[in-house]
Amino acid sequence: MVFCLRRRDGLPGLSISIAFTLVWIGLIVALPLTALVLRPWQDGGGVMLRVLHDARMYAALRVSFGCAALAAAIDVPLGLLLAWALVRARLPGRRAIDALIDLPFALPTAVTGITLATLYGPTGWVGALLARAGIRVAYTPAGIVAALMFVGLPFIVRAVEPVLRGLPPELEEAGLLLGASPLQNFRRVILPPLLPPLVAGFSLAFARCIGEYGSVIFIAGNQPFRSEIAPLLIVVRLQEYDYNGATAIALILLMSALACMTGVAALRRRVSRGLVARGAA
């Protein structure tokens, strides 16, 4: 007599939890993305051809991706410096600073945009001082970069901080005992383990900045071909009841963002493999 024993899961209800998770992900991720891909093609390929010949769309994409890349690149050294100060320095009010770093996660983006526009405006505290030197921040692409830097900075800090905290101090002591200068010790001992989290933080900040809307529109000026971002152009098309055009622009923005993120992920894997190969050698 053959008995068929049913294999039991290690955790009670594991299969039900996995099924519920997959259904939930399908409803909130896969289904909207599928609708976004299919909607521009409902009336044929004419909508996509019209959007692909839209110079305003290309200008908005150039502003969005250019400002996002610049803001994330500037945030990398700033985030590394802040993480270093939180981990290695005994600053007064360190816990308050640590809490303020997460403020962009909790603060409504519209409040961020209004605050930055007031601060960097022609009559603002900082904007008035910069205006005397002939520098304009608000209502220019520089204002977009400033807003995106504020939004993306926490991703860099939170990606680097745990790795920096986990570095054993014996590594630095060994480098100093071997005669390395503080700069050489930082460049050859401390910086290599921090490169993967720096690249990961850059990718997260870049991805967040590409689709940022609320904190940008109040300080950008929103001038077509100069300071108009792609998410704002999607809203403009929706207000014109051009739903197919709006979804087509959103699809192109999504595909462009996925291509950029794929490249950044490949760079992160390459950096990690290089560090592993160097350590094995």
Write the layout of secondary structure elements.
Blueprint: H1 14-38, H2 46-52, H3 55-88, H4 94-101, H5 103-106, H6 109-120, H7 125-132, H8 141-166, H9 169-177, H10 182-210, H11 214-220, H12 230-239, H13 243-280
Helix pairs in contact: 2-13, 3-8, 3-10, 6-11, 8-10, 8-11, 9-10, 10-13, 12-13
GO molecular function: ABC-type sulfate transporter activity
Pfam families: BPD_transp_1
GO cellular component, one term: plasma membrane
Write out the CATH superfamily name.
MetI-like
Domains (count): 1
Assigned CATH architecture: Orthogonal Bundle
Return the CATH topology: MetI-like fold
Could you state the order of secondary-structure elements as H and E? HHHHHHHHHHHHH
Structural class: mainly alpha
Q: Which range best describes the helical content: under 10%, 10-25%, 25-40%, 40-55%, 55-70% or over 70%?
A: over 70%
Shape: globular
Mean pLDDT over the full residue set: 83
Q: Can you identify the CATH class? A: Mainly Alpha
CA gyration radius, whole angstroms: 24 Å
Main sheet specs: none
What percent of residues are in strands?
under 5%
What is the CA–CA distance across the termini?
59 Å
Counted by DSSP, the helix tally is: 13
Q: Give the quaternary arrangement of the chains.
A: single chain
Number of strands: 0
